[in-house]
Specification:
Number of helices of chain B: 8
Strand content of chain A: 25-35%
Largest interface: A-B, 76 and 66 residues
Helix content of chain B: 25-40%
Distance between the termini of chain A: 60 Å
Number of strands of chain A: 27
Structural class of chain B: alpha/beta
Number of strands of chain B: 11
Radius of gyration of chain B: 20 Å
Strand order of the largest sheet of chain B: 4-3-2-5-7-6
Order of helices and strands of chain B: EHEHEHEHHEEEHEEEEHH
Largest sheet of chain B: 6 strands, mixed
Oligomer: heterodimer
Number of helices of chain A: 10
Shape of chain A: globular
Helix content of chain A: 10-25%
Largest sheet of chain A: 8 strands, antiparallel
Structural class of chain A: alpha+beta
Distance between the termini of chain B: 49 Å
Chain lengths: ~500, ~325
Amino acid sequence: MTAPATANAVEHVAAGEVLAFPAQEPARATRDSRPLRLITCGSVDDGKSTLIGRLLWDTKAVKEDQAATLQRDSNGKQNDLGLPDFALLLDGLQAEREQGITIDVAYRYFSTDKRSFIVADTPGHEQYTRNMATGASTADLAVLLVDARVGLLEQTRRHATIATLMGIKQFVLAVNKIDLTDYDRARFEEINHEFRELALSLGVRQVTAIPVSALKGENVVYDGRASMPWYDGPTLIEVLELATTRSAQTVGFRLPVQRVSRPGESFRGYQGTVAGGSVKPGDSVVILPSGMVANVTKIVTFDLVRNAAVAGDAITLVLDRQVDVSRGDMIVAIDSQPLTGLSFDAQLVALQPEGIQPGKRYWLKSGSRRQRVQIQPVSQLDLQTGKWNHAEQLPMNAIGKVHLAFDEQAVFDTYEQNRTTGAFILIDPDTNNTVAGGMITAKRSALGGIHTEDARVILSLPADLADQLMATELFAGRREEAEVRRVSAGKAVEIIDDIDG
Amino acid sequence: MPHNHPETELHNPQSAKPPLDPHLKALENEAIHIFREVAAEFERPVMLYSIGKDSSVLLHLARKAFYPGRVPFPLLHVNTGWKFAEMIAFRNEIVERYDLDLIEHVNPRGAAENVTPFTHGSALYTDIMKTEALRQALDAGQFDAAFGGARRDEEASRAKERIYSFRTPDHRWDPRNQRPELWNVYNGMIRKGESVRAFPLSNWTEVDIWRYIQAEDIPIVPLYFAEKRPIVERDGMMILAEDPRLELLPGETKREEVIRFRTLGCFPLTGAIRSKATTLDDIISELETATVSERQGRAIDRDQSGSMEKKKREGYF
């Protein structure tokens, strides 16, 4: 796409016009004073480390002694502006310096008068995608770098997709090295156009596109008007200062119980971090998965008697009766409960060389709960076409859709509704390594909860429904052969049957 | 009752503190979450306590995390024998005041061989009296998790550290093969002999630490405040000259200066700064205009580039 030819030479391209999506969240009356967590991503050599180095340098986060070390480590390898190699501020590992690449995610901190920032600088190499996913999981905003000369690459698409899966709603498209295209406005717009197509297909709503020279510091902290009079939009730092942190989640009160506190006979409290909604004394709550009901009597913290706690607060909750609550349980609002069941749908990113094996029993950890799960891959995302193709297993770095089958009741929200109670990691019991990060998309319905295991079918049903089903004609002649397994205190039943029988 | 808004916090009458700002509150919540998670998942956790400002904040957060219970694990102080005298006095007082269990460990080999920063040089001394000593203490206690107060803003290789940092049975850190760490879901599964170092202060910066100390009124070693003290200048560092074991080299003289410490380690390896900051307000405003980083005064970081990474690989905290 080229710039429309107009007689008016002072036509400005505001970022908002280039990607005129409606803002999803209304502008806040007051600035969000919490630190903004952001991730920079993009392909190798797009200049991520240089961009962050520039952010640190121009916000005065690099102290004199660090600058001296940097000068020394640069070995006189200064650029034509007389500045040291900023990437060395970020790539702190010996192996990274030897190879000139970023291997692991580095977290950096800087601030302006208006706000503080935590930035995760993540690797561009495909083999280190897991470290990019690590950074994305906690980020509020993604800065996606593209080399103006090269345009979008498969790795750009992979990173944008993972960031979207991880729930990031705000993107900055930094079209870097614009100086190497002679500040070519048409090139900038061409890349915007291409990214717009991708963003639309991913359902991304908030994109700000900025032409940037990280090396020269144009449109990063200081504006680049002298070189790019055609660009009238915000600088990167301006966008970051105004961005919102993760929005409050829509579900009700959630407290994954980390620990039971029993310092003496007279006190029993449930410790954890509120993962959604709010709670106050007098509220009725349900303990899941047991389903017991109680009322909140007190919210205890170290130095405050609180009359309410909200998402993010680390608290100790006291209930009005003796109930059986242990680590891994979830205390939730009685009028807004999460999904419980034995079978769920999820999307995940495979993070280790061995990929994800079908039928293998992994540990799943979500919140404070750890339980065994079997994974059935369903499909894998083709990053080139955006299509989900049927898949039997998921290799490293694959983004896949899977079915999860549990031995005992599991409790989740969807990730869309709650980024804490809808997220999980998978741990390989053979190596103890974290092999995937996953996001719950749905509970599988009773009859949808069928999956094949060798030649058998496992039906996971509530007990009463299972009894009804066994009474039907379908099972009339087969009651003897089907294996019936009661799980979780008789609340659910699994009927295991031969698929071809 | 004047406050009925559901999100209003009712202050304990004993505590007149204003609520924390959202930034510090978020950091505090994250740290408490990590403390509780480690305490629940591991059999034998221990907390590294080095008596500095970060340790003081770490301890405060631990007390908050387990309140109204006691801190459910011991503190481990790896003593090199070359700590500032004021630090040891402070430590003893804190342990008593808060009813804490303290384990103190000195490397017996180092003590027997009289390893000192003067005789062996900073690198070897640190290796024996800190890294080796730490490994001995962790092995002796069979600790499977150890809390540390390291922050990612301190040093380049620290910036790469996970919150749960996995260690092999011989305490090695492999920076190229760290476990992915997504959301706040931490993987604490280890085999016997392996361990995890946990860093609740990972996302704090030096200014955050000071602002939190001020907001929460946390006791710290008085050496952080400016005062007239005896010093000797050596290798471009101002060394506190109180300990009789510090021998003056030819050409060196002892003099008095108004100084304070921005970071506290072993006195021969920790440089003081000229400062008039006698209050927390002074310290914070001094910091906000500082042009050098906190670790500028630490000799052990400067042996060579990447030396912290090497030490960490060997088991240094």
